[in-house]
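If your schedule permits, I should be very grateful for your opinion on a structural question. I have a record of one protein: its chain in single-letter code and its fold written as discrete structure tokens. Kindly check, if you would, that the fold set down in the tokens agrees with what the sequence suggests. I remain grateful for any guidance, and I place the record below:

***
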Amino acid sequence: MNNLREKLADLCHRQWSGWVQYMFSKGTYNDDGSWTMPAWAVERWTRQMDTPYADLSESEQDSDRREADKFLAIVSQERDAAAAESEK
């Protein structure tokens, strides 16, 4: 179980890191080291974070489903490995 937890935690970190890289690529780095998010991004991402999953557009739900599929793949691999180990 601990191995599964670590794999899922790794995925969470990679998803978060990828999101932050994407988000920072859309803004502007300021001379003082701060970063400014463009107004369009504030509007879009605020709308998305305030919208329940069921009310997101189909393309937004598809994006979330692709992320969920990554979790399912890890769980499936772990389940299959455990089943193979128990058959030995």
Notes: The two ends are 19 Å apart (CA to CA). Strands lie at 28-29, 35-36. The chain has a mean pLDDT of 95.
